Amino acid sequence: MYTDGGSRNNPGPAAIGVWIETLKKQFGHYIGEKTNNEAEYEAIIYGLKKIKQLIGNDKTRTTEVECFLDSEFVTKQMNHEYKVKEKDLQGLFLRVWNLMLDFGKVTFNHIPREKNITADKLVNEALDNKEKQTTLL
């Protein structure tokens, strides 16, 4: 799963992009006013929920998900290399962590932006068309 989140003006209008390569599914959504890091976490949350929804609870328990994101900061937080000090991010980190418990295994890999083209494109399209998007709750 390739994910990206971004905001313009940080914080500002934000969106997520998710490319689930093995399922050939992609999603881009405007998510309201967020920071870049909040949007990165929201993309992971959305992607894990979407995989679970698409493959079902039984298969989820044995599924391994490799997450690829271009946020080195969030990757290092998810891999316990950086502490999650910001209160807003702590809640998002816990949401990801709890979702991970539903899967056989979830890993996080940092990749350069050039390798995350699809998810990045989905973020920018959602931001460009934000007035047409429904804000996720």
Topology (SSEs and partners):
Elements: E1 2-7, E2 12-20, E3 25-34, H1 36-55, H2 57-60, E4 64-69, H3 72-78, H4 87-100, E5 105-110, H5 117-128
Commentary on this structure:
The longest helix is centred in the first third of the chain and has 20 residues, at 36-55. Helices cover 42% and strands 27% of the residues. The chain is built from 5 helices and 5 strands. Helix 1 (36-55) packs parallel to helix 4. A 5-stranded mixed sheet has the order 3-2-1-4-5. It is α/β, with parallel strands linked by helices. A hairpin with a 4-residue loop joins strand 2 (12-20) and strand 3 (25-34). The two termini are 22 Å apart. It has one domain (2-132): 2-Layer Sandwich (Nucleotidyltransferase, domain 5), CATH 3.30.420.10. The mean pLDDT is 95.
Helix coverage percent:
40-55%
**Can you count the beta strands?**
5
Name of the CATH class:
Alpha Beta
Q: What is the 3D form?
A: globular
Give a brief description.
Helices cover 42% and strands 27% of the residues. The chain is α/β, with parallel strands linked by helices.
List the keywords.
alpha/beta; five-stranded mixed sheet
